[in-house]
Queue: 3 jobs
Job 1
Amino acid sequence: RFGRLEIDREACDVRIDGDSRALTGFQFDILVALAERAGRVVTRNQLLDAVAGRAAGAFDRTIDVHISNIRAAIEDDPRQPKRIVTMRGAGYLFTRSQDDGASA
């Protein structure tokens, strides 16, 4: 649980305030990989390696598209994300403190 966001691995379910949010299996895996590394920057290559078992190519933007879709599902305002933050030139950061500051 991260504030209002709850990730249930066993049920492959993501909820905000108890309401399920639709994610593909790949997107769920990306979210879990980020949440497991909360507070640390994760590169595209690390994410692809964690969820797909392969490294990203020089121009591979697959992860970016999936992150955008995950944000659309879990962020209050996907254009100003507070849960998954882009760290320019480095990767993505899943924030430890979200919403009311509660995290697990």
Job 2
Amino acid sequence: MIKVNGRSLIISSADEFIGFDGDNKVETRQFEINNPVLFDFDFKLEIKKQNDQIGIVDLEKTVEADKIILTWAILKEHISPQYLYIQLRAFSGSDQVWHSEVGSLNVGDS
């Protein structure tokens, strides 16, 4: 589980490696947000690959009493070898926008 503390992504060593280039639908990562101000927001994950290609992924959102859980089902088109840079984006209508800090994940070369 990747914890969101303020705007920081706290990525444990167990969550840092997300698989190998070409893997598809075998890994997921979850993000936990405890900020009640963001409970009504919609979330997307921005992914930047080593070649500077940027993708946007819709995240599945579950709201519990005291937190939000966002789930990312990792597809082969989301990843490329070495590092991925990720950033959460949250939207409430068209007026309010929130961003997390940028985090990095590792992808192995297959």
Job 3
Amino acid sequence: MKLPITSIWITGLSSSGKTTLAIKLVQELRVHGVPCVLLDGNEVRDIFDKKLGYDERSRKLQTKRVQNLARWITRNKILPVVSIINPFEEDREKYRRERSGYFEIFLECDIKTLCTRDNKNLYAPALRGEKKNVVGIDIDFETPRTPDLSLDTAKLDANEAFDKAWV
């Protein structure tokens, strides 16, 4: 991975491997002396007193929260490595236009594989119509038009994905 990257955004559906890849990248960046911090979408949700839902409006607000945190972290000369579903292309493109050094990694993965990895138990109930506001089921995930890197994590294990991201 070539710097001067000012922020790394890993996007994809739930269970596509975003957090796993982000953790590996942060570990390696730190080995190389790069000050960095992992901003995981789920962990960021827990920071704020005002809890957001999972509907489209709440997801947009969550993305904005994470973008604001990433801006603040960057201003402090720390590289944010962001792991977030970030389903809307408009949000991704707006941030890309505003921030030089934005690097986007899109993790694509087929629904069958996602269902086998689904430790949050999102997909099966959503596919049965018992759960709402699941990105990839009843909320569209808009495929990134211009990711800097796209990885199919149904075909790559975590170490292979990391190796391709680190290059």
